[in-house]
Amino acid sequence: MNASIAIIGTGLAGLSAAQVLSAAGHEVQLFDKSRGSGGRMASKRSDVGSLDLGAQYFTARDRRFVEVVQQWQARGWVAEWTPSLYNSQVGQLSPSPDEQVRWVGSPRMSAITRALLGGLPVHFSCRITEVFRGDQYWTLLDAEGESHGPFSHVLVATPAPQASALLAAAPKLAGAAASVLMEPTWAVALAFDTPLDTRVEGCFVQDSALDWLARDRSKPGRDHSHDTWVLHATSAWSRQHLDLPKEAVIEHLHGAFAEMIGCAVPPPSFTLAHRWLYARPAQAHQWGALADADLGLYACGDWCLSGRVEGAWLSGQDAARRLIEHLA
Ligand SMILES: Cc1cc2nc3c(=O)[nH]c(=O)nc-3n(C[C@H](O)[C@H](O)[C@H](O)COP(=O)(O)OP(=O)(O)OC[C@H]3O[C@@H](n4cnc5c(N)ncnc54)[C@H](O)[C@@H]3O)c2cc1C
Fold first, then answer.
1. Which of 36, 41, 183, 289 could pair with 300 as two cysteines, CB 3.0-4.6 Å apart?
2. Within this chain, do residues 254 and 131 fall inside the same structural domain, yes or no?
């Protein structure tokens, strides 16, 4: 039997691996508990247009990632974002001298993973709860009690806390994933009928419940009728207010925003809050990917490297390369 390879998670790490494996002629099947791909790079559709609630932009430092981002740019999946960038410190706004090249998906962050997924076979709204191996092949069990398989290999591409349970067949891998602490982030989107009277399009915030804010519609390709903003709380604030009702989170972060933005802020005509329970790993690692090649079980994700978009892509590449090398 020529069993295919299961990939759990259609964030950038899982899709990066899927690209390598299918380009090498392997059949893959993808699974995601969400209704669409993207994970923490997903964009939320709303009455005021798509909003990037997770990853805001990304940078490319590793040569391999720089090259692939150039290809994505040529295909129109990403564009450079050159915001009018500020720092806010003790309530004072000052232009940021930072000249980093920043990339965003276009016309929304999720454009990248959607394009990478293409026509690959995928099961959405399918939360995998168990991964187990028979004599030769792997089977996945989902939350509805349905089983999927047989698979020759399984690649777990979820955030670390979710990965550790799925890696139980390889205790060493499960232990490594369980050791990764991931920090939460509360994200709030606000939309105003008339544009705020400020030049700020992105801002790193200090001494506040806020950590970052972005004028979403300043990103290339966005088609917004409103002046849309995305605010991120600090990890510390998010951790302390993990179970606060969404309305209270919106009220608090809207207040912090109005205090630091330096212009009149009318009541927003649209608000939304989203809690990322596992937004970012507390620490970077140098693992690349985790593998038990003899068993045929692999794990990848941003938490195996930098905890950023670039790390997720590189980790997916690493997991797929190791799997292919073991087969050779
Ligand atoms: C608020 C926020 C801001 C950020 N800002 C930036 C930034 O500015 N720049 C930057 O580079 N990075 C940023 N990041 C980090 C970046 O988004 C991540 O590093 C990257 O998207 C991780 O990709 P991934 O594929 O490893 O994981 P994910 O994108 O989390 O993908 C994992 C997928 O697995 C699925 N899944 C989980 N469990 C199961 C299960 N049991 N069964 C089936 N499917 C499952 C999930 O639904 C998800 O789609 C930010 C993240 C957040 C949350």
1. 289
2. no
Mutate to test the pocket of ligand 1, among 58, 158, 237, 272 (most ligand atoms within 8 A of CB): 158
What is residue 1's predicted lDDT score, i.e. its pLDDT? 56
**Does residue 202 sit in helix, strand or coil?**
strand
* 186 and 121 in a common domain: no
> Residue 126 in contact with residue 33, Cβ under 8 Å?
yes
CA–CA separation, 193 and 171 (whole Å): 53
Q: Whose CA is nearest to atom 10 of ligand 1?
A: 308
Cα of 134 to ligand 1 centre, how many Å?
A: 30
Q: How far apart are CA 300 and CA 169, in angstroms?
A: 16
CA 26 to chain centre: 25
State which ligand 1 atom lies nearest to the alpha carbon of 279. Answer: 53
Name the nearest CA neighbour of 151 among 5, 324, 297: 5
Domain CATH number, residue 11? 3.50.50.60
pTM: 0.97
* 275 in Cβ contact with 184 (< 8 Å): yes
How does pLDDT run across 121-158, given as a tens digit for each residue?
999 999 999 999 999 999 999 999 999 999 999 999 99
Query: Closest ligand 1 atom, CA of 13?
Result: 25
| Domain that residue 22 falls in | 4-44+113-179+285-327
- Which are the contacts of 48, defined by CB distance < 8 A and separation ≥ 6? 189, 191, 224, 225, 226, 228, 269, 270
Same domain, 166 and 296: yes
Residues 268, 151 share a domain: no
Residue 301: predicted pLDDT: 98
Atom from ligand 1 closest to the CA of residue 31: 43
Nearest-CA residue for ligand 1 atom 7 is: 55
Residues of the chain with pLDDT under 50: none
b/e sequence 291-326, b meaning 16+ C-beta within 10 Å: beeeebbbbbbbbbbbbbbbbbbbbbbbbbbbbeee
